[in-house]
Specification:
- The protein is 28% helix and 9% strand.
- Strand 1 and strand 2 form a beta hairpin.
- It starts with a helix and ends in a 21-residue tail after the last strand.
- It is α+β, with helices and mostly antiparallel strands.
- It contains one helix and two strands, in the order H-E-E.
- The longest helix has 19 residues, at 4-22.
Length: 68
């Protein structure tokens, strides 16, 4: 299994959870998400605000490491 495939989604998930739990108030429907920055898979940095005007999907899923 390629571990690199899971790094960015895992980092996005962890960062999103940290940002939302540390913020003073929860977001309401229609409010802008807090800005954050991550390492890009293509090198450099990727900032959420740099994607303004584009559709952004943040996918949350369970990593199941139990034997099948």
């Amino acid at each position: 299994m390629d571990r690199k495939r899971f790094v960015l989604p895992l980092l996005l998930s962890v960062l999103f959870i940290l940002v939302t739990t540390l913020s003073a108030a929860a977001l309401e429907v229609g409010e802008k998400a807090p800005d954050f920055e991550l390492d890009s898979t293509k090198g450099g940095k990727l900032k959420l605000s740099s994607l303004r005007g584009k559709n952004v999907l943040i996918n949350f899923y369970v990593l199941d490491f139990s034997p099948t």
